[in-house]
Amino acid sequence: MTVVSWLSLLASSGGFAGGSYFLKRYADLGSLADLGCAFAIFALSNLIYVNVLAKGLGQGAAMSSMTHLILMTIIGITAFGERLNYHQVGGLMFALCSIWLFASSTQSVTS
Predict the structure, then answer these.
(1) At residue 42, does pLDDT exceed 70?
(2) Helix, coil or strand: residue 35
(3) What DSSP line would sit under 68-104, residue for residue?
């Protein structure tokens, strides 16, 4: 994967995480401004994600899902005080390993 592809994937996943943050705030506070921000961020993130998929990066879908899982967990812990049990920490470790394996496989194919 190229640097632009990695940045697009990171921007898309970060956007999904940001949109989810505003959606959670809307659920807690009921502010329509939070709902509008969530929709706008989700729309932009989806456009970026479609660009990633259009480049033929099928593994981007799996990597994006795992990155989104990790980012949402970090937001849950830092912003909302969520606590993780051992099973959830194990799941995060598998997510990190899957991202590493996908990245390693694309580097060995292009080399």
Answers:
(1) yes
(2) helix
(3) HHHHHHHHHHHHH-----HHHHHHHHHHHHHHHHHHH
